[in-house]
Amino acid sequence: MAIDATVHYIARDEAYKAEKAFDTGFPVSHIPGARQTNHRVEPHGVKVHQIRDPSRYALDVHGFCVIRADLDINPHDAVTQLSEIQFSIWDKLERILERDFPQYTRIESYDLNVRKRDSDFPSITRGYTDFNQPSRKPHCDVSQQGALMDLRFAFPGQDHIWAGKDFDILSVWLPLVGPNSDWPLVLCDWTTVDPDNDIIDNDAIHRDHIEENSLLHYNSAHKWYYIKNQTSSDLMVFRNADSCGRRPRGFHCSIFNPDVSGPPRQSIEVRLVAFR
């Protein structure tokens, strides 16, 4: 069964040829003349199909896959003691991926993010929330150039580790509390993306650094997929970018599910560099 959903694509706008797409991760209203973003968004209705047989989807074909594993993350600890438990999560996850993806010779986690949907989302009028909220805009967390920017920020002074190496930037996403049907993560099948015309790179501006990620323009050929009632043992693994710029990528976002049941979504995502 498919969900009739709305995906908030970035518009195909000639303005981005004169000014690069950008957005900021912090309030700028106190800065005269500053803008939060220059994005023009186009909502498009799509059908999001249920992943019934995870074995049909491969990282090196579709840009994403699903694996079954138990990280045994305590949801309360994840939202109250993340810094204390993140290294344990990273260690468990690296061992799981090394087992399931033998093409990689070394895997290093370097980022971890917990999201907890605010009850007012997406109509939040105040300037902040306690946790990051679901992302409605289809994106990959880093571009090919952004991958290098990410690694330099995460591993300062260690360029020799990745210089000239073949690597992927992967993400692993799972709900902390399941089965989850609230604002599920959805992924676009890479075989339906036109990489020469559907993708635009974007400056993601943070308080202490700038990243470059990639956003997606609408294409009626796109096919979207999700895991119905995803549990904490259903791990979504997807590629954001690779050092060569050739491999399938997993553009993703979250959608409103009209058949939601259960509490607001709590989720965790880990970003890793995987060397070949």
TrEMBL record:
It comes from the Eukaryota. Keywords: Methyltransferase, Transferase. InterPro entries: AsaB-like. One of its GO terms (biological process) is methylation. One of its GO terms (molecular function) is methyltransferase activity. Transmembrane segments: none annotated. Belongs to the asaB hydroxylase/desaturase family. This is CmcJ-like methyltransferase. It comes from Podospora didyma.
